[in-house]
Amino acid sequence: MVLTRRAAKSILTWLPNEIIAEIIRNLPTGDQAALSLASKLFNALVTRSLYRTIILNSVFQAKACCLTLTNNPAKAASIRTFNVAHI
Q: Is 87 found in the same domain as 58?
């Protein structure tokens, strides 16, 4: 792998993914969602954290969640807690 000057200076190339994932887990949900758009690596790490706990409070959220999980079954593997409020 050839690193450009910019990539060689990036601390992310030297940190293990486990440490980056732990940092991501401690970010607010909105920041995690924004970070998922930064790169493929961040997207993969953020997806695990974002989909770990699903809390649905409305019919709209339930429909959107079902559609997302139907279109992306790999995301369903990240779910550990799934709560549906009385809707």
A: yes
Check whether residue 14 and residue 32 sit in a common domain.
yes
Question: CA angle 54-21-73, nearest 5°?
Answer: 45
As a residue count, the chain comes to: 87
Q: What is the pTM of this model?
A: 0.64
> Tens digit of pLDDT for each residue in 51-87?
888 889 998 999 999 999 999 888 888 889 988 887 6
The 3-class SS string of the chain reads CCCCHHHHHCHHHCCCHHHHHHHHHCCCHHHHHHHCCCCHHHHHHHHHHHCCEEEECCHHHHHHHHHHHHHCHHHHCCCCEEEECCC
Looking at the fold, whether 58 and 46 belong to one and the same domain comes out as no
Question: What's the CA gap between 48 and 78, in Å, rounded?
Answer: 5
Pair (65, 39) in one structural domain: no
Total structural domains within the chain? 2
